[in-house]
Amino acid sequence: MAGNDEIRAAAQGTAPVPLSVLDLVTVGAGRTATDALRTSVKIAKLAENRGFNRYWVAEHHSMPGVASSSPAVILAHLAAHTERIRLGSGGVMLPNHAPLVIAEQFGTLEAMAPGRIDLGLGRAPGTDGATAAALRRTDRLNEGADDFPQQLAELTRFLDDDFPDGHPYARIHAVPGPVQATSPGGVQSPHRPPIWLLGSSGFSARLAGVLGLPFAFAHHFSAQNTVPALDLYRESFKPSAVLSSPYALIGVSALAADEEKEARRQVLAAALNMVRLRTGRPGLVPTPEEAETYAFSAMEREFVDSWNANVIHGTADEVRAGLDDLQKRTGADELMLTANAHTAEIRLRSYELVADAYGLPLG
Fold it and tell me: In whole angstroms, what is the distance from residue 310 CA to residue 293 CA?
């Protein structure tokens, strides 16, 4: 069972709380998925060298501009290129997968990078309904979301190898996992990936609180629900073997650039990408030049303005001030930054500027 030391961390430099990275493995126009994955390695190395706490990747499907359909595969790749930073899913969409498969995948990751793996779980499909149906081999999509607590309980038992006697799965074991310690001559790692619940509304907030689990909220695309969800999590929280008190992380869209104008250009391009996604036209992340010449309709412009109001962007000092204010308003215990931009260089520079602004350590 994971403990507080695998969840809580100390803030670095002058940051108010630990800072982490959420990587959507975005693919820009004129770039390939290979380029995007190479960028992920570069950002993970930078994050590790600059004292960021964790590096998570999110599960998405059928989106040309997001190359993160297989979090476990990407995390294995990142584990091979890092040594200290925590790696995890932000998250794996549990209804898309059999709990045993997830337990096996993350048990394998834990064996690759002992004590460094987080298992963040969501109950949304991470895609549109038709794709979700193809993933799950069923068109009864509501069933998956409604069954989330039961699926979570099953996954937890596979990870802990503690189904009770008489249970249909009592003789089934997730390997790598605790069963290896009970085999003749067996020695098992003391670590088990801690489970986080992810959400953008109150359902997972309440469930995480009742179960005494850490909670990660998707502020980057559901900002209006952040404070209510965090309040609900804290009000519902019951101490557990995992946590003695609540621990809430929020995902934040944040982009720092050397000049404010450049930050605005990059953020506009990312917003155009969201316009296309929300209107059923998903594609690669457009260039800033394309976004600047795009003829936004009145409705699209309204969406862009609303979307970008929740993206903290500008110079390093402006982003630091925005992050400080957000942390004070929400009381978040950790901030997980996602820098969405067309090019790798801009994304890398953003994390570097934020690290410098807070005086995060080098090396």
Answer: 23
The model's pTM is: 0.94
Q: Which two tokens stand for residue 66?
A: 């997001």
Give the separation between CA 351 and CA 346, rounded to whole angstroms. 9
Name which of 123, 130, 129, 177 is nearest 147 in CA terms: 123
Amino acid at 95: P
Q: What is the pLDDT of residues 172-214, one digit of tens each?
A: 999 999 988 877 776 767 678 999 999 998 999 999 999 999 9
The three-state secondary structure class of 218 is coil
Distance CA(112)–CA(299), nearest Å, equals 48
Rounded to an integer, what is the distance from CA 202 to the centroid of its chain? 18
Residue keyed to tokens 């010449």: 293
Nearest to 189 by CA among 214, 165, 170, 161: 161
Q: Does an H or E element contain 340, and which?
A: none
**Which one-letter amino acid corresponds to residue 140?**
R
As a whole number of angstroms, the distance between CA 352 and CA 264 comes to 18
d(Cα 198, Cα 217) in Å, to the nearest integer? Answer: 6
At 228, the amino acid letter reads P
Q: 36-85, pLDDT tens digit by residue? A: 999 999 999 999 999 999 999 999 988 899 999 999 999 999 999 999 99
**Pair 337, 254: CB distance under 8 Å:** yes
Token pair listed for 81: 């290129």
The token duo for 288 is 């800033």
Tens digits of residue pLDDT in 265-324:
999 999 999 999 999 999 999 999 999 999 999 999 999 999 999 999 999 999 999 999
User: Is 13 exposed, middle or buried, given 0-12, 13-18 or 19+ CB atoms closer than 10 A?
Assistant: middle
> What's the distance, Cα to Cα, between the start and end of the chain in Å?
31
